[in-house]
Amino acid sequence: MKTVILLTILTTSLLCVGGDHLVVGNTANRVVLAEHKRVEYNAIPFIKRVKYFFYSSPDNKVIQGIQALDTLHSKASINITAGGVGHSFVNMRMKSERGKALGYDIGIYVNPQYP
């Protein structure tokens, strides 16, 4: 029970922090990469680019980890708006700096033995 509470607090604190990368949950031990997507948007002068990413597991596997890396090393932000670790779906919103391009490398990890 203490582990679940600690994991919930850690996940919530990671979601509140804006930054270059987003890593939530387990992305290393006994999990497989279920989805890999590269999200890119070109820059438009004086405009912030917003892109949404949606993932839903076709066989209702529970997401164990999410890794979103800013490939451009910019000051873009990424947030999980729904679902995430512990669910079979995730919705994410990415927003670039004003006048800058947007580029993220997103990986969704599931445990193949856990339904």
Question: Which term fits the overall shape?
Answer: elongated
What is the number of independent domains?
1
Q: What percentage of residues falls in helices of 4 or more residues?
A: 10-25%
Give the beta-strand count.
Answer: 7
User: Any low-confidence stretches, pLDDT <50, length ≥5?
Assistant: 1-10, 12-18
Strand content: over 45%
Q: Which H/E pattern describes the elements?
A: HEEEEEEE
Distance between the termini: 21 Å
Q: Which structural class do you get from the secondary structure elements?
A: mainly beta
Tally of DSSP helical segments: 1
Sheet of most strands: 4 strands, antiparallel
Main sheet: strand order: 1-4-7-2
* Integer average pLDDT: 83
SSE blueprint:
Blueprint lengths: L1 H15 L5 E4 L6 E10 L8 E7 L6 E8 L6 E7 L5 E7 L6 E9 L5
Antiparallel strand pairs: 1-4, 2-7, 3-6, 4-7, 5-6
